[in-house]
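Continuing the batch. This is chain 6 of the set; chains 1 through 5 are on the previous pages. Same settings as before, nothing changed between runs. Recording input and output for traceability.
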Amino acid sequence: MAGLTKEEIIRSKKELEMLFDKNASSVAVHREGGVKMLCRIKRLDVEKMGMNEKNPSLMETQLDVEKETQILKVEQSKLFRIQALFSVGKRIEPKATRRNRIKRLMREAFRLQKEVIYNCGESAGIQGILQIAFLFVGSGSKKEGDRDRSTKKNKPKLPSYNEIAAWMTKGCEKVIRKVALKEKGS
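Output for chain 6:
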């Protein structure tokens, strides 16, 4: 079981600022259950990637049917990638151990649902890097102000893996459709 690769995690301060820019028209926002998703498409420069007519790997596609499908898969993975960010705020969950557990559950759900998210992005016709921020905003069933922090009896249960996976899968499908429509409109 491999984790997320270095390329799949958003780390750059510039990328974070662009994703959380409130004035950006290319950012789509959606909330599903207890997870809020921000999504934007970062365009790739095809010329810099070496995918022009001078690249001999593109000319080899006519040699064999089996080789053609393998080469096409490589081309698709170069044209469409996903980067993710996982966050749980201190105001939402004050205990670090619980925040870390929620982030682990979100990363695991993303890792296991990655193929579904890729298929959704490819079917929407997205080319570039799809950047998604997964922000945990609460359990989904209760509002933020509903719990009383003074007593331990009212401490909310952590969401299960199945709940988080369902929220993320449904939300990703919707937010990818939104961001694809925004890209086509602009």
